[in-house]
Amino acid sequence: MRIDLEWVLENLDRIGELLLEHVYLTALAVGIGLVISFAFALLIRDRPRWYGPIIGGTGILYAIPSLALFALLTPITGLGTVLTAEIALVSYTLLILTRNIVEGLRAVPGDAIEAAAGMGYTRVQRLLRVELPLAMPIIVAGIRIATVSTVGLVTVTALIGLGGLGYLIVTIGTQRGSFGLTATLTGITLAVGLAALADLALLALQRAFTPWARRRTATQ
Amino acid sequence: MIEFLGEVAAWFADPGTWSGRDGIPTRLWEHLWISGISLAGSIAIGLPLGLAIGHTGRGAGAVVAIANVGRAVPSLGLMGLAFLLLLPLGLGVGPLPTIVALIALGIPPIVVNAYVGLREVDRDLVEAARGMGMRGREVLGRVEVPIALPVILAGVRTTAVQIVATATLAAAIGGGTLGQLIYIGFNVGDQVRIFGAALIVAALSIGTELGFAWIQGAAASPGLRGRAYVPVEPAQVGRGGGEATLP
Fold this sequence. Notes:
The complex is a heterodimer of chains A (220) and B (247). Chain A has 220 residues and is mainly α.
């Protein structure tokens, strides 16, 4: 058993396709998860009573193993469909994203909110121009964690016939051919690389959009 | 849908579901002992490491690295890799690759939480303990660990839930567990079996989460007991601003 770089070069096109599929499945899950989590967070802000049920419910979802969740959805949404995969993947982002958005909004200083009200901002203006920008570092921290975990979870969808890079790990990796180890290592390396890249890109994006946070940490 | 659920109920009622190599009791027991050994292994390696780094304050960079790598490496990839590396040694078939992968997977949350828990202990208390003449180990055992216990146990809980959940994937490398029942269902295209098996797996995972939440609550200081259920916290290092800003 050895690492076969020739195999990688011969299959570069296929590996590229799988990588793209992986990016697509991840981005879709985090994007939809973000929209739902924002709705949850705004609901919790207006009605704090909902915090317990929403966080508790998403916490229970978070504990269900991915393979089991895919399986539970199969009778309703079909075996190996993108819909099955995405419902499960989105579910796993909700706990982290909702909690971080709620915490981010809570951390906004009361003075800033009062100042905005004093300047005549409406609720929507205040949310978009004051609260969200100030909450951004904590929200982005949540998006980064959700993205990195989703990159890992997408590999499991290979067990239901999708998988992106997971296809390299599962379908090819567990066959006892000479390229098993090569395929598995390629899958893991690209998945880790993709996670790291997405993490750094999100951090860079956050820094670019919140220059004051950077300046503050620099002077502290 | 009602008809389908009736079929699932019939599957549960069938004695064949409860006997033999792929019966629920056999696979459940396998799932439990593999998870138990793996959790013990993760604690045995991760806890001393996290406590040492937290107590001395040296090696904080390693904690950040462990946290990041732990989150980024796909659990399925870890399983496949353990399987492929142990295969030439004649150890690839059976539960060993699963246990190795699960131990590795379980270490990061325990290290991170032990570290963060100890660093959050009020420095004045540590100074006071030193002033009372306690040695390093006594400070750790009698002051730092008791105060940090809820955070440390949160790490154990995160790991336990992760291990029980990920043990399901052992089926992909022939390692058995309850995941095997789902896997068989996928292979023969039997939706009833897939759904029934998934229900058991989900119940076991949720039970683990709630059980460890209860243990964590029972270990908390009496003044904090009786709080509502709080979900397991994915360990966050450097929350709120970016990278490596450890408390």
